Amino acid sequence: MKLAAIMPCRGRAEQTVRNLFRLDQSAGTKCQLIVVTHEEEVRQRLRGILNLTIDHHPNRLSYWQGMAAGMLRLEKDVTHVVNLANDLLPGREWLKRGAEAYERRFATGPGLMGFNDGIHGPELSPHFMISIDLLQTFGGWPVWYRHNYGDTELCTRAQEMNLYGKAAWAVLYHDHYMTGASRDSVYQEGEENHIADRKLFEARRYSQWTTFSSFSS
Predict the structure, then answer these.
(1) CA distances for 201 relative to 132, 140, 147, 197, angstroms
(2) Where are the domains of the chain?
(3) Distant-in-sequence, close-in-space partners of 168: CB < 8 Å, separation ≥ 6
């Protein structure tokens, strides 16, 4: 298993730097860490720190578009990818524990192993480790969503194939307004797109994942 983790960043420059240090220091195992951002402030703050791959994109991307862009920067032979966000607080050895849980459940086969975010129950993992071959089976990262429900779709589809698990002690705590953090413009954007994304998810699930949206920016 060779791991990479991708963090799309939109705003929160100070929080991004602080949390990246914590994610790196507490991972417990090696991982290529990729940051995708269009913001010069974030790029400047990250330059020369840690062992990062920085994709300074010219356009502001959605979260899932950022994940797709990060895939283009993967090192050779990466087999599994983790989706991160800049509002995550890691538990001890979060990545090592996630990888061990994955291998116990799926061995060397395809699968999706969720992290414990402190918010959602066992059926949904907003942040997870997924094998690249399974991701490709699903058509790649769900760039057809504006902000929400991409994680819901991937977890749902993995469950349909009996290729889903959740690692109770691999913690990526979501420091979210649902757990008392302040609302900001990124959260507001997610709320504004929630209804449209939910309708698309429901349509895609009804059509057995064949309905797409026209969203592309």
Answers:
(1) 22, 16, 12, 6
(2) 3-206
(3) 116
Global pTM exceeds 0.85:
yes
- Find the helix or strand (DSSP H, E) in which 25 lies: helix 13-26
Q: State the Cα–Cα distance between residues 117 and 126, nearest whole angstrom.
A: 8
C-alpha closest to that of 31 among 93, 89, 85, 101? 93
Q: In the predicted model, what is the mean pLDDT of residues 133-162?
A: 96
Please state which architecture CATH assigns to domain 3-206. Answer: Alpha-Beta Complex (3.90)
How are the residues of the chain apportioned to helix, strand and coil, as percentages rounded to the nearest 5? 40, 20, 40
Residue 164 phi/psi, 5-degree rounding, is -125, 140
76-112 pLDDT, tens digit per residue, is 999 999 999 988 999 999 999 999 999 999 999 999 9
